Amino acid sequence: xxxxxxxxxxxxxxxxxxxxxxxxxxxxxxxxxxxxxxxxxxxxxxxxxxxxxxxxxxxxxxxxxxxxxxxxxxxxxxxxxxxxxxxxxxxxxxxxxxxxxxxxxxxxxxxxxxxxxxxxxxxxxxxxxxxxxxxxxxxxxxxxxxxxxxxxxxxxxxxxxxxxxxxxxxxxxxxxxxxxxxxxxxxxxxxxxxxxxxxxxxxxxxxxxxxxxxxxxxxxxxxxxxxxxxxxxxxxxxxxxxxxxxxxxxxxxxxxxxxxxxxxxxxxxxxxxxxxxxxxxxxxxxxxxxxxxxxxxxxxxxxxxxxxxxxxxxxxxxxxxxxxxxxxxxxxxxxxxxxxxxxxxxxxxxxxxxxxxxxxxxxxxxxxxxxxxxxxxxxxxxxxxxxxxxxxxxxxxxxxxxxxxxxxxxxxxxxxxxxxxxxxxxxxxxxxxxxxxxxxxxxxxxxxxxxxxxxxxxxxxxxxxxxxxxxxxxxxxxxxxxxxxxxxxxxxxxxxxxxxxxxxxxxxxxxxxxxxxxxxxxxxxxxxxxxxxxxxxxxxxxxxxxxxxxxxxxxxxxxxxxxxxxxxxxxxxxxxxxxxxxxxxxxxxxxxxxxxxxxxxxxxxxxxxxxxxxxxxxxxxxxxxxxxxxxxxxxxxxxxxxxxxxxxxxxxxxxxxxxxxxxxxxxxxxxx
Length: 672
What we know:
The protein is an alpha+beta fold and 672 residues long. Among the domains are: 63-166, Beta-Lactamase (2-Layer Sandwich), CATH 3.30.450; 446-507; 512-671, 2-Layer Sandwich (Heat Shock Protein 90), CATH 3.30.565. It has helices spanning 2-62, 78-90, 232-235, 237-285, 299-342, 348-363, 411-472, 477-508, 520-537, 558-574, 605-608, 632-642, and strands at residues 94-100, 105-108, 128-133, 136-145, 148-161, 175-181, 186-189, 202-206, 210-216, 225-231, 370-371, 382-389, 394-402, 516-519, 541-545, 552-556, 580-587, 591-598, 645-650, 658-665, 668-671. β3 and β4 (136-145) form a beta hairpin. α1 crosses α4 and α5 (299-342) packs across α6. The longest helix has 62 residues, at 411-472.
């Protein structure tokens, strides 16, 4: 027993001391490293967001009609005032310049470089972008004339002093940070001359004086690194002090533990053994009426008395709990039976009548009734029914049911009947909501039917009339443009109506797939042949790839399949100004995949989440050229779901193209 006391008392202290000596330093250093990595990640994100925000600002400014002043060399200085104001708003060491196609700076936020020459050879390949020259970051965007988008007026350039990034670094006595370009050793911030070798994207180094981490910066400052160094003496100061204290205290604690163990072990052993034996007996027999004999007046006696009281209380509580559990189980079963009965009612009157009958069974009273008026019950218990007013989104009084009881003695009984009232109101809400939904559905169906008949017929007449006039009438150029505009607008409205009708059919469950044996490759070839001329007109390279597809007869709805592929291809061509589109057909053990990869404008992560919402269009720089209904992708996804498939959109962000993947469950029949 003595050895046990000593071990129990001293072993935790010894374990803590060993842990502190051998493991705490490593853990503290690792914690510091992890904290600095987290800090570098946050700073990199802030820097990238800051530079990307500046890029978007320059792209936006370059699209303003005011940029046409470049043609007049900013004669009235409106452009210079705009650039100066924007530079002041950003409150950074920057210069914003407008450069014409002759490489002259015609407007600037700084007067010292106005009319200077500017080297624009580095800007001719991209519409917008960045490059770094020595200590300067240049963000540029081409400027096109507002009256002719094909006409380039010059460039809008932001000259950014990289020392601005020092704002994002930490400046403390014990924490040092800087940004460095290993290629030319250009440094932003505090340079400690740590002589680091940046042979990894991120790394941690521990030397005699510092705990060092570095991480590669991506995006615009790709190839640069951010470095954080923490003074080792500061990071581990608390540990060193704690170890010294523990060593001084270890001897005194050891002596004290031995003394306490010797003094109390003998006195505690015998009573504890007796208590343990009786406790084991109670555990085995579940006889909580047993009591322990008190033979002393010390702490053990107090413990024994407390234990006896606990046994007595436990025995009484178990009996009470058993009775209450039986009662609660009975009430719970009654509540379920009432709910199962009420939930089967079809209208409000039936719900109220059935509810009253069920409550009569519970209360064993026959004088229960329902009333519409408020506050009529005076000296009796009742439950109020408050239903939902769906028009105004609030609860309204529906009525109340008398319970035939003057007063409940138990508050739990009141709660029980309030729970029944909640069940009744939920069923009433359900009935009212079903009736409301059916009314809305009928109104929607009537509207769709009316639109189909009343709008499509005159639109067909408008399209036919404009086509007839364009073909058979001698019209002037302006008249032909007007007729073409009318025809285009009518076709646009007709497509929107057809898409709305298709979506309405899908939501009503009236659009069904007509599955048949089809040649998937032929269907895809038809889609390719149909849209290839549109790609050729825009000088877009359009490729069909089928190397990883086994040509068999598959089962699907050919019409829906083609409509989905055509919708996705049309979007790819519409939002790709130059580059390529790859139409790839492949399969795995479970699915057939049609992927469409374009090099177009791309989509941000936030916008991808909204693409499949009805009537939703993502804002982009090509919206003015291509209008749409915002229904194409939503309709395609719903049709794909009917075919037991899906449509997924992927993109790495604005300017990085888009990939659409249409998949359906693989059901093959035979090889072709």
